[in-house]
Input
Amino acid sequence: MALTATKKKSRRRQAFTRRDKFTLSVFVGVPAFLHIVWVWIPALLTIGLSFTFWNGVGLSDIRWAGLANYNTAFTASPQFWPAIRNNVYWLLWFGLIATPLGVLLAYQIDRRIRGHKIYESVYYIPVVLSLAVIGVIWNFMLGPGGLVQALLGYSDIKDAIPIFGNFKINTYVILSIASWRHIGYIMLLYLAGLKSVDPSLREAASIDGATEWQSFRKVVIPAMKPVNVIIIVITVIESLRAFDLIFIIYGTSGAWPILGMLVFQNIYGQAASMLGAAFAVILLLLSITPIVVYLRTIFRDDI
Amino acid sequence: MSKAAKNRNYKNRQKQKDFMISLFIGVFGVLWLMPILWTIWTSLRPYEDIIQNGVFSFPKTLNLDNYVDAFRQMDIFQYLANSFIVAIPAVFLTLFFGSLLAFVVTRYSFRFNLSLLLLLTAGNLMPSQLVYAPLFKMYIWFGDLVGNRTILYDSYLGLILIHVALQVGFATFVMSSYMKTIPKEISESAMVDGASVFRHYWSVLLPLMRPPLAALSVLMTVWIYNEFFWAVVLMKTDSKRPITSALGRLQGEFITDYNLLAAGAIMAALPTLIIFFILKRQFVSGLTLGSTKG
Output
């Protein structure tokens, strides 16, 4: 709406001086150039390159491959389906456990239960830490000589049991570490949304005898629709893009394969091939739906 | 039972329940802080003490020696400096470009306003891995073109520019939603008075943009400081790496001396923790400005 108002006004006054025209084109042109050349052109090039054979060195070595890379990705990459499976685990864990916990936490803190100010800070400290720091910190908990090892009775470094290397539990361990940050992040976003919900709505519900759970489900959640969409989208995008934590814990060993790491292994360094580009495009295709939903939500007034 | 009594009864039960909820969240909160507290604790104890007496022993000495050693042996100061050499100009440029774009799309009407915003925001959400390989090639190619291979690749400048290019969309979006709330009359009168476009931006609107600029600068500093992927792939020389990406290598190198590593990790976390405690409000409002518009 605001946009159409501008439209009318400036149509009435289109008399820009030459200098103003120049200023305006610089204002738009420089940032747009930077963004398009640095982000969109490389992204489109990767899409194109995913249909070629190339080792990433000489431009003259590029050969047309058709769908060969995709064929390899789907049928002849031993890590592909495990990686997809891990991304799905990540998504399910975040979607069914971490995100709901963050929402619930935000709801309780917003009700100003005793100590809510302290709790808010406590739960959101991990949000400001980088995943690199988080990886190192959790290694002190779980790695050799770590607190958890000691609690389990393996306090001597020599006796340490593998936790990250234990394939029965490492998925849960990794997802718990990732949640440590994600829950606080979701709490933060939801808390901000809750502050804009009219408190009298909830009061009315509680006078009518609604339990806390009922008023949360029937009053708060419906009033928060845009925030809910944003949170779901962020959950999906984070699950798809997961990379840093795995890199810090496992390096490029692929011990816990995930799509973001699969792209990296195949496109970075000496062993580069355009199979990595094909993985990157698959990652993009999976990300498109949440990106579109996100854009539609935040630009809902303008479109 | 009268309605009032019923209500009182309900309130009492709710009070008890709230107490339990608060207790539960509190206990969980202690667990939540455990990894950080444990790392700080580890960083304050000498290595020999733990080796001799075990992890749970009562410490004979607690001191900052590990921090001193971390600075000496790990070049922590250099890596911290690198982080800020990248983050500060990147944040500054992002906000500058973002405010220019926000200014144009909200105050002037072009047909491509909305498409530009959509393009920038979508680009911000693109997986970095999709962008990496051609960008790397372009950096090398441009370097060869101007006769200096490390002008963009393996340089602060190249890292700064990719951060700006990726984040400018988010900054534009946040600032343009804020700018829409500034009354049009202010711009009208500036234009009637014959102010040039530049004056209109610089002297009229920019001073009104302090709240989103403050919020975004805090948020973006934390984001760019914490960024990991680009710092790993675009910086080859170890001594130029920001601290987040250097930490991975230090973890491998100092794996046996983990009290020292703990000190390093705390040093790496310290700037963002300080920002968190001092500028928490700006950080939160920066996040929420972008995600919960309206």
The radius of gyration of chain A is 25 Å. Residues 34 and 260 of chain A are 25 Å apart (CA to CA). Chain A touches chain B through 114 residues (CB under 8 Å).
